[in-house]
Specification:
By secondary structure, this protein is an all-alpha fold. The chain has 3 helices and no strands. Helices cover 70% and strands 0% of the residues.
């Protein structure tokens, strides 16, 4: 999955570089290429990246729940 993400990111960078080149050369389809690149980033790359990052439950240490709040505020009044 990690290699897939790297390949997808390089593909995105190449896509956007091509789009910037087409904009600089005033090509008719430059805006379409850039728009498709943004759609690729939004709907294909980012969901794949988010799934890869959070599939193992790594996000649980960032969630605030009652137990963490009690632990955080346990020593507040003891100063």
């Amino acid at each position: 999955m990690n290699k897939l993400l790297k390949i997808m990111f390089v593909l995105f960078l190449a896509w956007m570089a091509t789009g910037f080149f087409l904009i600089k050369t005033a090509h008719d389809k430059a805006e379409i290429v850039m728009g498709l690149g943004v759609m690729y980033l939004s709907f294909i790359f980012m969901p794949t990246f988010i799934y890869h990052r959070y599939k193992d439950g790594k996000y649980k240490k960032y969630i605030i729940n009652d137990e963490k709040l009690r632990e955080a505020f346990k020593n507040v009044g003891k100063d």
